[in-house]
Amino acid sequence: MDKYFIKEGYVPNKQSDFLDSQTASWIYQAAIYEFAQEIMQRHNLKSMLDIGCGFGVKLKEFILPVCADITGVDIEHTIANCQKMYNFGNWFVDNIEEPYLKLDRKFDLIISADVIEHLVDPDTLLDYAKKHAHADTFIIISTPERDLVRGGDNLQSANIAHVREWNQDEFYQYITSRGFQVLDHFFVEASRRPTLIGRLRLMMARLIRNTKTNQVILCKIKNDAS
């Protein structure tokens, strides 16, 4: 059984249904989309694919101001919301682990924010990204850093919606083993807490612990990767 470079003794959770919410879409992964915005501006990128786009809140806030060619892929209920709410973007329903969408194009930037930990077979997400990447495509993948979130002795995610979680070294090894060249690997805060009370709680948390617990990898497909 493939352990995806996770340590011996780790027990993955069984697959569970994960439903995003509009509140969670606003709170989580903002820093990752801010970074994506920066990459798009720095390299003058013109198109973007979001694998697991959720309700599209952060695409509207961070990507739309710098990119008109936005495509989002996710499950039916979130895509239906995007199609109803937005007058921008192309929104498609697909199953990342068993894809059926015929999206015959490549993108300058591909992002998948905190999706890979939900998948029974994370290789399917990486294959999905490869399929829609050209030689110069930048790919951003984020996921919780297990040791920072749960401690170095953790052997199973307490979040039943997460099949598995990687620490920094494991995730780097996994991504590079699948034919990607890592350009950057860093940490960001998982949430931004938009309410006043939430911001105050985050300020207090910063005083007593490390709140940058999400790892972000910026990568490209290796030239010799198939």
Give descriptors for this structure.
single chain, 226 residues, alpha/beta, Rossmann fold, seven-stranded mixed sheet, 8 helices, 7 strands, globular
Describe this structure in words.
A 7-stranded mixed β-sheet has the order 3-2-1-4-5-7-6, with helices on both faces. The model has no long low-confidence stretch (mean pLDDT 90). α2 packs parallel to α3. It is built from 8 helices and 7 strands. The protein has 226 residues and is an alpha/beta fold.
Overview in brief:
The protein has 226 residues and is an alpha/beta fold.
What is the helix tally?
A: 8
Please tell me how large the radius of gyration is: 17 Å
CATH topology: Rossmann fold
**Percent of sequence in beta strands:** 15-25%
Q: Judging from the principal axes of the Cα atoms, what is the shape?
A: globular
CATH class: Alpha Beta
Q: What is the number of domains?
A: 1
**Helix-strand category:** alpha/beta
Helix-strand topology string: HHEHEHEEHEHHEHE
Measured distance between first and last alpha carbons = 23 Å
Q: Spell out the CATH superfamily.
A: Vaccinia Virus protein VP39
Q: What's the architecture, going by CATH?
A: 3-Layer(aba) Sandwich
Helical coverage, percent range? 25-40%
Task: Give the SSE map.
Layout: H1 22-27, H2 30-43, E1 47-51, H3 57-63, E2 69-74, H4 76-85, E3 90-93, E4 107-113, H5 123-131, E5 133-144, H6 146-150, H7 168-177, E6 180-188, H8 196-208, E7 214-221
Parallel strand pairs: 1-2, 1-4, 2-3, 4-5
Antiparallel strand pairs: 5-7, 6-7
